[in-house]
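User: Continuing from earlier, I have the next pair ready.

Assistant: Great, send them over.

User: Here they are, in order.

Assistant: Folding the first of the pair now:
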Amino acid sequence: MLGLAALAAWLALIVLSARNMAARRWRALRHQAHGAWELASVGSSGLAIVAGKVARYTSQHWWLSVAVPIWLVALCSYALMTWLILSRTVAERQDRDGFEPDTWILMGGLAIATLAGDTIHRLAPVWLAGPVLVVTVVTWVAATLWIPPLIYFGLHRMSRRPEMLHFAGVWWAFVFPLGMYSAASYPMAAELGHRSLITVSLVFFWDALAAWLIVVVAGLLRARRALAAR
């Protein structure tokens, strides 16, 4: 039931998003693009995972024919949104202080696409399994390559602007990519035959948990100060 509700919401959001984007010129879209726009890809990958799980745990394997096109939409959405974000960065000559926590979704979008690809690969027929595996490995590698520059730009801005460490709602966008990379790396250990990736998965799991706890505590402290100021 939740999957069907998500599918209905996804279809409605796809139509609304396409209409809103079509009503704006390319320059306007590029000017407004930011990391949170990757949620279009993230949500699509999440729905593909749900459809794949339904196909796996029920006798209704035709759900795989739903999961695959939605996964492809997720990949195409990611490519489009990333192009807009990077195009904006180049056009505005955004300096290294332009980092925002939601930029980590650039990595998280690929991580959840990896998890969706692994879910589909487990059920795919022979003719489809090979291409799906290749794309899944590519998305995981690309997600991994995002990590060093994201860490660099994040630390650089923190050193230049310590005030950005103060709690803000946008910091929640930092937690999800870490957890999703952990979840994506675990099946990659089996797919690639490298058990060392299990260690990578555990490291990012603890990183994500620590980040979650820090954001929760910071949010509660801010709420308490706000109440005390009244």
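And the other member of the pair:
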Amino acid sequence: MRIDNLTPLMARSLLAALPKAAPGFPIAGDEPTVRAAPMQGAATNQPVPSVAMLVTLAAADPAIERRRKQAVDAERGVDALDKLHKELATGTPSVERLREVVEWSENFEASDDPVLAGILSDIELRVRVELAKLDIQA
């Protein structure tokens, strides 16, 4: 991908963020092709953002990565509950399954996103109810 008309400062910032945003990003040569915009006097302090630049910066957003990890954690909790439910339906749950559920409960972290926080809270409540039924403290 080629990004044109960037200020030298923005070009350096994008190049520095590239390994964080896409660790395996294939780069032709040593560095991607980035052309710096010519300086247009002291009055032009803010570069005009391009769509490609905004997409690149959005890909490096740590908030998006944090939400993705929290969603994966929520899915892991639901999967553990589902497996526990299946084992309870067929008899006694395995020690491994109980440890998995307790570990999820102990490592539970609330989200700053209200929708995701509500989902995680519901999963955590269900985990605590299931553990309480089995008289296990988490």
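Worth noting for the second one:
The helical segments are 8-21, 51-59, 62-90, 95-106, 114-133. The radius of gyration is 24 Å.
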